[in-house]
Every structure is written in C-alpha cells, then in structure tokens.
Amino acid sequence: MGSMFRSEEMVLCQLFVQPEAAYVSMYELGETGIAQFRDLNPHVNDFQRRYVSEVRRCSEMERKLRWVAGELPEPPPPPKPSPRILSPREINILEERIDYIESEIQEITRNAQNLKTDYLSLKELKLLIEKTQTFFQDHSAHRKISASVQIYNNEGVLGHLGFIAGVVATPRVPSFERMLWRISHGNIFFKQAQIEEPLKDPVTGHELQKTVFLVFFHGEQIKLRVKKVCHGFQATLYPCPATYKEQQDMMSGVESRIKDLEMVLEQTEQHRRLFLNNIATDISTWMVAVRKEKAIYHTLNMFSMDIVKKCLIAECWVPRRDLHILQKALDDGVKASGSPIPSILHHVPTHEIPPTFNRTNKFTRGFQNLIDSYGIASYREVNPALYTIITFPFLFAVMFGDLGHGIIMTTFAAFTVIFEKKLSKNKTDNEIWNIFFGGRYIILLMGLFSMYTGLIYNDVFSKSLNIFGSSWRNVYDMATLNSTQKNFDLDPAEAYTPGPYPLGIDPAWQFASNNIIFLNSFKMKLSIIFGVIHMAFGVTMSVVNFNFFKKTEMIYLQYIPQILFLMLLFWYLCILMFLKWIMYSANSTDPAYGTSCAPSVLILFINMMLMKKTEAREGCLPFMFPGQDTIQKMFLAVAFLCIPVMLFGKPVYQMMAAKKRKQYQQGVESGDVVKEPEDGMGEILITQAIHTIEYVLGTVSHTASYLRLWALSLAHAQLSAVLWQRVLRMGMLWGLPAGPVILYVIFAIWAFFTLAILVLMEGLSAFLHTLRLHWVEFMSKFYEGQGYAFVPFSFADILEHDEDEPPAQTNGAPPE
C-alpha cells in the first residue's frame, strides 16, 4: 500500500550499453516493464535513425501475419508462452518462414480463384444452354425465328438472322434492354430469363443475381453495336448452338467439365484448409515475437551513440525500488552477448519533475483509474485512490441503499470476480462489458455497501424487514380501530418502547403516513454530516503534503484557517443536529426539552450567520444550552478572522522570504523561481484572492452539494415503491384461476424495470454523482493533479493495446 498512499520515488538513469548486448537487455526490460525511456534524438527523422531498417522489417512481417490471420477460417488460438528470447538467426528463419507462407497462400488462393472463375463460366454456360432451349422451343413467338435459322457459327451469324447469347447482372437488365432498343431503333428481338440459383463471385464470395439473355438481329452493323453495348454493361457472351442436337452435345461436355472442376476445387480447398490449420497454432506466437522485436528496435531508436560510435547511450525513469531489476537486465544482456565490456548504470541528478507511478494490482487498479481520469497526481503528492476504496462505495451506497438491489449488484460483481480468469481470456469489442468487467471490484464493493445501507434504511425492494420486531405498540382498543377514522396518531411517550432500535429503522415506519417526512429529515441530516466529515478529511490531507514537501508555514497560513472556518461553521451545524437528537425527547420531564420545543437547526444556523436574534416560542427556550448565543458569536468572529489570514498570509510570507533571499544571495536567484515583491506581489495577491474566494464560497456550495446524497436516496426509494405498488401489486389483486398466470407476466415486467431503471440507470446516476463528490468536493481541498503518467516500455501494454505502433514513449518531461 506504500505506493498507493504516495507515488513511488523515481530515479533518472543513464545507461551505457554495447550494441550487441542492447537487444537482450531491452528484451528483459520489456518483460518487466520498469523503465520509461526518453527520446535522445528528438530532432532526428524517423527514417534516419539507426534501426529503421529493422523496424521496417518487423512492420512488414507483422503486416504479412495479419493478412495470414485474416485468411484463417477461425480466429487463431492464444499465443504459447515464450520460454526465451529469439536470437537474430531465429528471427531471420521466422522471416523466411513467413515469406514462404504468404507466397504459398497467395499461390493457392490465386489458383483457387482461377478455378472458381472457370467454374462460374461453365455454370453460366450450362444455365444459358438450358434457358436457350426454352427460347427455341417456344411455340408462339419463336416459331418463325426457328424456321429461319439455318446455319450458326462462332460469329453468331445465321442464314437469315444473327443472335448473341450471354449473361448479365440482373439489376442492369432494364437499362441494358433500353440501350439495345435505342441503338438498333427497335430492329432487334430481346429475350431474357432470370437465373433462380444465385451464383458466387470467385473473388469476394458474394452472391450474384444474373439473367440469361438472347438478342436476335439482322445485319453486321447492328451486331457490332450490340457487342459494344454488351461490353459496356459487363455482360459475358457465350457461343451457343442453334440446333437442339448441338445444344445437347455441348451440355454434356459442359457438365463433364463442371464435375471435373468440382473435384479439383474440393481438393484445392482441402489443401488450403490443411495448410492453414497447420500454421494456425503458431500465428499468434509469431505475432507476439514480431511485435516484441519491433518494440525493442523502436525503443533502441531513442538511444544515442557516443562519439566513437561504439556505445549506445540511453536515459530512462525507473522506480528506485526496481533499480536492481534494471541492473540485472543489463548484466543478462552482457552475459548473453559474450561481450567483455559491461554495461554501465549511472544515476543522473536532475531538477526535472519525474513521472508519477502508483503501483497497483487488479483490485486497486479500478479505483486508481477513477482518480487518474480527473488528473494524474503531481509527483509524490498524496494519492486519493487509497481512501477512495472506502469512501467511494460508501457514498454511492448512501444514495443507492436498498438491500434487494444491492444483492443483485453484488451477485453480478461476484460472478465476474470468481470467473475473472476465464472471462479475461474472452476478448471482446463490447465497450459496455469491458467497462463493467474492468470495474468489477468497484461494483462488488458498491453492492456490499448498498446491502449495508439497505439494512440501515430497512429497505428491500421498497419493503421493510421485521427482524427485531417493532418498538411501537398499539394503544387503541378494537372499537376505536374499527371506527371510520383511517389514520391514528401514536404518541412516542406512550406507544414507543424506550431505547434505540437494534439495527436500522423501525419497520413500523413503512406504514406511517408521515414516512417521507421522517426519512427526509433523517437522510438530509446524515448527508450534511457525511459531507462535512468528508470535506474536513480532504482539508486535513493537505497537511500531509505540506509536511512531505517541507512547507510547514502553509500549515499555519492555509490549513489552520481553512479547517477552523469549516469546523466553526459547518461542523458546529452538525453538532447542533446531534444535540437536538440527544437533548429533546417525548419522555423528557422538562417541557422545555420536549418534542414540541425542539428548535429548527436550520433556523438557528441562519440566525447565527445573519447575526439575527432568535425568537423563542411560548414555554420554550430560545437556545439549546446556556451561553449558546455567545459561543455562536465567538465562532462566527473567529471564522471571519480566518479569511484575511487565508487571503494575505501566504503572499506576505512569500514577500518576506523573497526579500530575505535577495539580501543573503545578493541578487542571485536560487533553483526555485523567485518573484520580486515589487513586481510580482500584485499577481500573487490576485491568485491568492481567487483561491480564498473559491474556498470560502466553495465551503458553502460544497456542503449543499452533499445534499444530493439525500435527494437521490429519497428518489431511489420512491421509484422502488412506485414500481412495487403500480406494477407488481396489480398481479396480486387477481384471484384464481387467472391470477398465477397474470402474476407471472407482471413479475417479469417488474423484474425488467427493476433491472433496467432501478439497478442500471439509478446505479449509473448514483455512480456519476459519487464521482463528482470525490473530484470536486473532496479532492479539490488538497489534490493538485498536475503530474504526468509513468509509461514504461512494457511488452504487456504493447500486446494489450494491439496497435500497429508501440505506445508512444515520452521524453520524460512534464506536459506544458
């Protein structure tokens, strides 16, 4: 948890590596993922770097493997674990193997396409002959034409008439026919018949709808025009005999050739399928090896050379606790290369801001991503993600509290957690599922906390649990209960058993007419109490930052006035709530502390802020305790005095410190940026005034913002109640025999709306509101978020992103 509390300490290292040892060393660093390399050649073109040919070669192998993987009938299996690094010789053998596979598949595919093209032509010719026989056997329109047919040759010339037969795409037939009539001025006879059986394109495999046509004409000039139109409409022309005997002879020959082609096609497809199956098990493994090599050379291009061009120089950010891993990787590279010259690891002192790195696991990663979405933490500042693990699901549950809905959410999250290994292997592009699965531990905690708050609210699908019985008892007799009066008042002094209810809210409130009024008051006060505690904790966390960065003066100039302003006003408001719960009771012997004299905490607080006199009701006290008016005025005065301290404390201190440095250093500025008091004082005052106004006004608005805990909790409970009363209860009002069937259908409707609205939509709404409470109300009190993320050279990240290029390595400098 050390790195979750604060980002890890980073070290800027300079590496001196021999070129022959660099490959193995980078492979080891890519496997561990501990170093973020800086580009030492920022002004050098990518095509002018040392290892550009190796990167290009890897890109070409990756392209070929992607193409081969796309030719596989099924997705390739996951890669096998790589026991060791591939040597340059093995990489060359792999490249030759990939080239051979690509050329072999291309040759097989090309031959198959040629065979399929011939097969398509024969199929079209067979269908054309069948349709042409129908044309010539027509007993009405073609009788005269058949009598005129004498001789046919390959040019399509008859003794008296000529004709052309072919096949054209069905969608083009209307335009094709109109064009033929226009170019011939109507001096043709056009006959068509659609092919019912769809044909397959030999290249794309898509289904083709085609039509057989026959065009009769007279004259050589019209024949040439018809052929040009056929060529323009991409129609395929086939020789077709005119006599029945010749057609039968051609049909038998075509059918024989089709059978032969079908056998050859089957053998070709079987050979192709066998060849692809033999290499399918290795495709993913080869792809991983190629991507790793490409990433290594891509990173090596960031290195620079020494003057004599015999040593590679690199700079990288490394966590201090992982320096021994870096040294071991360098030693392994030297040992594998057999070089007598060792690699050198040197720590570089620098004033640059290092990257922020919080070491996480599968449980804490989701919470860290919530914080990083707002802004990467500044280097070594307090990380809010550690506390978000508890505060986030708790505040969510305050809004979402329902035992039934919490069980549904917990069950779903528990399923994804228990089978996470199996589910993580099933890669999918469904973004919604990926979000749910990535935040499975967040959802699990939100569900568990919702079950707890559901017990506190005693709310299960808008119904109550009667676990401990009720502390209320009936004080009316049967005659009174049987009267026409519908609602009866219960005096707490007579009808309520003294002492608190064991757990949560008494189930009797479920039937009370003032249920909403009671829950409104209860949840609204809880929201303010939780909000003030949450904000006070956020303000207090700034002390940890001040101590770590040795800014002790900011504790007195910023933290103390801020926490005093918050506690003297709004925590005092919470204390008044507790006092009201404790001091006023229906069983009180003093009428001044009875329930009728309980003051409004909100009115007391408003009168305190406006310095207005509080009027007491007859028989009641104006304040809760003696001296309250004096204490309130004192609290208000101290809170207002904290404002000028927040406004002028820091600027005055910076002005005095700048003068002192200028006096002792004689005008020489230190490593920090020093603003001259006469030139920069105005800017400092304006900046501090903005922060002060933001905090003072934000304290009020942020406290009111926590009332969303009350509003969403009340809305969730009322939606659940409406869904129960207006939907599910309808099925319970039907008697036998149709009652069970109707209840079954209505229950399905109720379950659907419960999942869709109350669990998904309301859960998403509560999640977003909780996220806002952490980003704005909590983290703004101490969190700067001005850092930049640590992006190490890691094979795991490169393979997970599945991109053409490795993740961009930054030069180690903070963003501008």
Summarize the structure.
With 816 residues, the chain is an alpha+beta fold. The chain contains 25 helices and eleven strands.
Ranges with pLDDT <50 over ≥5 residues?
139-159, 667-674, 803-816
CA radius of gyration is 42 Å
Largest sheet: 5 strands, antiparallel
Q: Which structural class is indicated by helix and strand composition? A: alpha+beta
Distance between the termini: 31 Å
Q: What's the average pLDDT?
A: 86
Q: What is the count of β-strands?
A: 11
Shape: flat
Strand content: 5-15%
Query: Share of helix among residues?
Result: 55-70%
Total DSSP helices? 25
Name the descriptors.
single chain, 816 residues, Alpha-Beta Plaits, 25 helices
Tell me what the structure shows:
This protein is α+β, with helices and mostly antiparallel strands and 816 residues long. Among the domains are: 1-38 and 306-357 and 792-816, Alpha-Beta Plaits (2-Layer Sandwich), CATH 3.30.70; 116-265, Alpha-Beta Plaits (2-Layer Sandwich), CATH 3.30.70; 359-538 and 707-788, no CATH class. It is 60% helix and 6% strand. The chain has 25 helices and 11 strands. It has helices at residues 2-5, 19-32, 52-71, 88-136, 143-148, 173-184, 220-232, 244-300, 323-337, 365-374, 385-400, 403-418, 420-425, 431-438, 440-457, 478-481, 492-495, 515-548, 552-583, 601-609, 628-665, 677-705, 708-732, 739-778, 795-801, and strands spanning 10-17, 36-37, 162-169, 189-194, 199-200, 207-208, 210-217, 236-238, 304-305, 312-319, 344-347. Strands 1, 2, 9, 10 and 11 form a 5-stranded antiparallel beta sheet that branches. A 4-stranded antiparallel beta sheet has the order 4-7-3-8, sandwiched between helices. α11 crosses α15 (440-457), α11 (385-400) runs antiparallel to α24 and α19 (552-583) packs antiparallel against α21 (628-665). The longest helix is centred in the middle third of the chain and has 57 residues, at 244-300. The radius of gyration is 42 Å and the shape is flat.
